[in-house]
Design a protein that fits this description.
Protein name: Helix-turn-helix protein
GO molecular function, one term: DNA binding
InterPro entries: Cro/C1-type_HTH (IPR001387), Lambda_DNA-bd_dom_sf (IPR010982)
Shape: globular
Oligomer: single chain
Number of helices: 22
Distance between the termini: 20 Å
Helix content: 55-70%
């Protein structure tokens, strides 16, 4: 529990850090001079810290103070002691649900009710409430398997795969994605949506070549082919415009004579984005740029779709991919330049919390590439405010936090995160 000052006073968590330093100094029966001597600093420095005149903005200094005062850094930072954050329990229950090949024991549910539950599960994932979703998924998997609706089964397996990848269970995530592919059957759009999950799971296992090979064929089936190098030269400078631009990229334009719905373009565009990230992971940076450019063309003409397949695809998603591709090829300066522009766009705030949180952790890595510790700390703190589970439940975020926290001097902004994930114990 939080300690409070007498009769309804201010919580100790609400006190400035200097006041907490003063309180613990008095509890340890130290004068300001004694504390200063042990810190090898002046009494004036201690006095200014306690009065808030001097800001404690270096984590290394906070650690030093905490050591002398014999408390954890989180105590000086006003954080409650807690068990270090870790992935939520319950993955074994999901594994057991995936391992059930017999008819599930769950009673059949009306399709509308099951569709509502699947929609709630998607929202839970997109809000990054991973602990809650871990508890829900075993029963939802049983219910979806009993219903035998390809659409709902594909969506349930995709949610499961995405969550497992987040929790560091990429192999199991690939299994769930593969189940989604099998459940899709001959439905090309469902199979393409399932392939998004396959690509994400393979990328999480650092199998980018396999991911690229899986992602491109369904994207090419859903979308118009990319212009060939000679397309813009057909007809010469005075030739017919339609001859020079033979590929119609408008939403609804047919591929092989078939009209397309916006949802198909969103799935196809997402496949291109994932393929671009896989190409960057393979070191095929020119190809990654080509794929993001192609995805941008799709996104620029996409308007007003209901995102039934939960892709979050659009112009901002493509711009975020450009940032990550630039960072992958080692051009962190270009990545951060693009980042500063894209987060000011209105569409940024419309992306799911999970999407933004995961992206910001990657941006923190880009800041580290250029040695900007404060920028990395700021990105991590922002990610935690948007989607705490992205920072506290994922090993990738923990690694980035550790890199920032052990730097000298470490920004104070990352101290709270370091304690939450157990790095300052």
């Amino acid at each position: 529990m939080r300690s409070r000052t007498g009769g309804g006073g201010v919580s100790s968590d609400d006190l400035p850090i200097g006041r907490r330093v003063a309180r613990w100094r008095v509890r340890r029966s130290m004068t300001q001079q004694m504390l200063a001597d042990r810190l090898r600093r002046s009494k004036s420095w201690v006095d200014k810290v306690e009065r808030g005149v001097r800001t404690l903005d270096r984590y290394s200094v906070i650690q030093e103070l905490a050591h002398v005062l014999r408390v954890d850094p989180e105590v000086l930072l006003g954080q409650q002691r807690s068990t270090p954050a870790s992935p939520p329990d319950g993955v074994d229950d999901i594994r057991a649900a995936l391992a059930r090949y017999d008819n599930p024991r769950a009673p059949a549910q009306p399709p509308d009710e099951l569709r509502r539950q699947v929609g709630c599960a998607w929202l839970t994932y997109q809000h990054a409430h991973y602990g809650q979703l871990v508890r829900v998924l075993p029963g939802l998997l049983d219910a979806a398997q009993a219903a035998r609706s390809p659409e709902l089964l594909v969506q349930t397996y995709r949610i499961t795969s995405s969550l497992l990848v987040k929790l560091g269970e990429a192999d199991l995530g690939w299994l769930a994605a593969d189940r989604a592919m099998a459940a899709a059957g001959n439905d090309a759009l469902l199979a393409a949506a399932a392939t998004i999950s396959v690509g994400q799971a393979l990328r999480a296992q650092n199998r980018d070549h396999l991911a690229l090979a899986a992602l491109l064929p369904p994207a090419n089936r859903l979308l118009p082919p990319p212009p060939s190098p000679g397309d813009h030269e057909v007809g010469g400078s005075g030739g017919d415009q339609s001859a020079r631009q033979p590929h119609d990229h408008r939403v609804g334009a047919g591929v092989h004579g078939r009209q397309q719905a916006p949802g198909e373009w969103a799935v196809g565009g997402t496949l291109l984005v994932q393929a671009a990230l896989a190409a960057a992971g393979c070191g095929e940076h020119h190809r990654a740029d080509e794929l993001t450019e192609r995805a941008a063309g799709v996104a620029a003409n996409l308007r007003g779709y209901d995102d039934a397949h939960r892709t979050s695809f659009g112009p901002v998603a493509v711009e975020l991919a450009r940032v990550l591709v630039a960072a992958q090829r080692g051009d962190a300066v270009e990545a951060l330049r693009r980042h500063s522009a894209v987060v000011r766009r209105e569409g940024w705030w419309r992306l799911p919390a999970e999407y933004r949180g995961a992206y910001l952790v990657e941006v923190a890595r880009a800041y580290l590439q250029v040695g900007d510790l404060r920028g990395a700390a700021r990105a991590l703190v922002d990610a935690d405010s948007v989607a705490p589970a992205e920072v506290r439940s994922r090993s990738l975020a923990r690694t980035v936090i550790a890199d920032v926290a052990r730097s000298q001097p470490a920004p104070a902004g990352v101290a709270r995160l370091a304690t939450l994930v157990g790095l300052t114990r």
